[in-house]
Automatic annotation (TrEMBL):
Annotated ranges, domain AMP-dependent synthetase/ligase: 19-359
AMP-binding enzyme C-terminal domain mapped to chain residues: 409-483
Name of the featured protein: AMP-binding protein
InterPro entries on file: AMP-bd_C, AMP-bd_C_sf, AMP-binding_CS, AMP-dep_synth/lig_dom, ANL_N_sf
Family indicated by similarity: Belongs to the ATP-dependent AMP-binding enzyme family.
Entry keyword annotation includes Cell inner membrane: no
Keyword line: Ligase
Gene3D superfamilies from the UniProt entry: 3.30.300.30, N-terminal domain of ligase-like (3.40.50.12780)
Pfam families the UniProt entry points to: AMP-binding (PF00501), AMP-binding_C (PF13193)
SUPFAM superfamilies: Acetyl-CoA synthetase-like
Top-level taxon of the source organism: Bacteria
Source organism per UniProt: Streptomyces xantholiticus
Length: 498
């Protein structure tokens, strides 16, 4: 990390980081979207006026404001404005629906809820009303504005909880993960340090900004002073024109993104898909070594992969100066300040980027050991060079396109279907998605075998988010079980169908 980025990384709060960067390079661009261009100075100025508008609405330091918005310049302005006020913000992934949204609003006790109105054919305002949300306001292309002189000073403490992110984990309901400005700055600093980026780079945010990766990336832009292209809707090949027009040098997101780019590259072998691209980077899902080598060989760029979670946005990251074998077969190394401890094969973590815990105090108590290390539930080991190799997960969670999916939530809903005697949901390896969701159904007595279409329609009707729907169905006479408690042996299902 260069000296300027290192000095900026010592900022106590996200707003202080925005303010310092704007003072250093006010005229350099930070956000690019279509024909729109926002500079670091404009990011500070517009966000402060939005903060004043929110203050006039009644938002105060500590007020909980939930938002469910697509990846747009306005979304970044809103989140920075809330950071200026010292509000507690609770981002919600845009493709979550009534079940998850209602739960997040109730658990966080959000006093305000920002939505896009009708977006991509879905009425978010109506959903907010069904959920009983308070203080609903639309923030798609217009934000509240006011006079900054009316506001109190910005927050000075970066270790207060000001962020509530949501993760499914292994339970049927999401868990509210508590972060501070400093934990998010530490996570973004880890990413920036590993990737060796510079102010000459052009980045890209093609994933939901409401994901924990959103502030990770924003912090990286602020530390190094380079811009990113925002994609409200990411599809290939449609997005390629924007990558080429802006000369993007670094892209990525998760294993699914690598696969999508590679598939497009194979349509035009011998010609670089994005001529300026030098680095693909991401995490959030298993990465097959074969996919790594294919991307490097066919796309002519470096591929670095990392390990993170909602509780710790960046734990380890591959670096361009790692060996090719380490890049292909490990999750990279932890940065200074991130302690990785392996206990009985399980990965445990301690450091500034680790969350403060969960909204539920009991979940917090269960998540940390006596030495203050977060118990991840992931299995792995460290190599002699300090690189982390993940070998599996103790948690029964499926990671599809970088998003955690609870198998139990899907199983609990499917148990109500008349054609399902019993069911086990597992994640199976998938080159495109990282993992795909497979439902293995035990036949119900005197019932016709259910079809995949029937089951997905059943789950949709009960409000399950689209990205959690099973993509594969297997119907069996009996599920494999152990001989003691008759527990379903999911590893046998993974072996059989994976």
């Amino acid at each position: 990390m260069n000296e300027t980025a290192h000095a900026l990384g010592a900022a106590a709060t996200l707003w202080e980081l925005v303010d310092r960067r704007a003072a250093l390079t006010p005229h350099r661009p930070v956000l690019l979207q279509g024909e729109r261009r926002l500079t670091f100075g404009e990011l500070r100025g517009h966000s402060e006026r939005t903060a004043a508008g929110l203050y006039a609405m009644g938002v105060r330091p500590g007020t909980v404001v939930a938002w469910q918005l697509p990846t747009r310049i306005e979304t970044v302005l809103l989140t920075v404005a809330l950071a200026r006020l010292g509000a507690v913000q609770s981002p919600v992934i845009p493709f979550y629906r009534d079940r998850e949204v209602g739960f997040a609003l109730r658990e966080s006790k959000a006093a305000y809820f920002a939505v896009p109105g009708e977006w991509r054919g879905f009425d978010f305002t109506s959903m907010a009303e069904r959920a009983g949300a308070r203080g609903v306001f639309e923030a798609y292309d217009a934000l509240p504005v006011g006079d900054p002189s009316t506001m109190p000073p910005p927050p000075a403490c970066g270790t207060d909880v000001r962020w509530i992110y949501w993760t499914s984990g292994t339970t049927s309901d999401p868990k509210g993960v508590l972060h501070t400005d400093r934990s998010l700055i530490a996570g973004g600093s880890c990413l920036a340090h590993a990737l060796h980026l510079s102010e000459d780079d052009i980045g890209s945010i093609a994933f939901p900004f409401a994901h924990i990766g959103g502030p990770d990336y924003l912090v990286m832009l602020l530390l190094y002073g380079f811009p990113a292209v925002l994609f409200e809707k990411f599809t290939l090949p449609d997005a390629l024109d924007e990558y080429r027009r802006h000369g993007v040098t670094t892209a990525g997101g998760s294993t699914a993104f690598y696969s999508m780019f590679l598939a497009e590259q194979r349509k035009r072998p011998g010609r670089r898909l994005i001529p300026t691209l030098r680095l693909l980077a991401g995490g959030g899902a298993p990465k097959p070594p074969e996919l790594h080598h294919a991307v490097v060989r066919e796309m002519g760029c470096t591929l670095t992969h990392g390990y993170g979670m909602t509780e710790v946005p960046m734990i380890t990251m591959g670096s361009p100066d790692d060996t090719e074998d380490d890049l292909a077969r490990t999750e990279g190394r932890p940065p200074a300040g991130m302690e990785v401890r392996i206990v009985d094969g399980e990965v445990r973590l301690r450091g500034e980027a680790v969350c403060k815990g969960y909204l539920d105090p009991a979940a917090t108590a269960a998540a940390f050991d006596a030495d203050g290390f977060l118990i991840t539930g992931d299995l792995g080991h460290l190599t002699d060079s300090g690189h982390l190799v993940l070998t599996g997960r103790a948690k029964d969670v499926i990671i599809r396109k970088g998003e955690n999916i609870s198998a139990k939530e899907i199983e609990d809903l499917l148990h109500g279907h008349p054609g399902v005697g019993d069911v086990a949901v597992v994640g199976l390896p998938d080159d495109e998605r990282g993992e795909r969701v497979c439902a293995v159904v035990e036949r119900a007595a005197d019932a016709a075998d259910p079809t995949l279409t029937a089951l997905t329609e059943y789950l949709r009707a009960r409000g399950l988010a689209v990205h959690k729907l099973p993509e594969q169905l297997e119907v069996v006479d009996v599920l494999p079980r152990n001989e003691t408690l008759r527990k379903v042996l999911k590893y046998k299902l993974r072996e059989r169908y994976g």
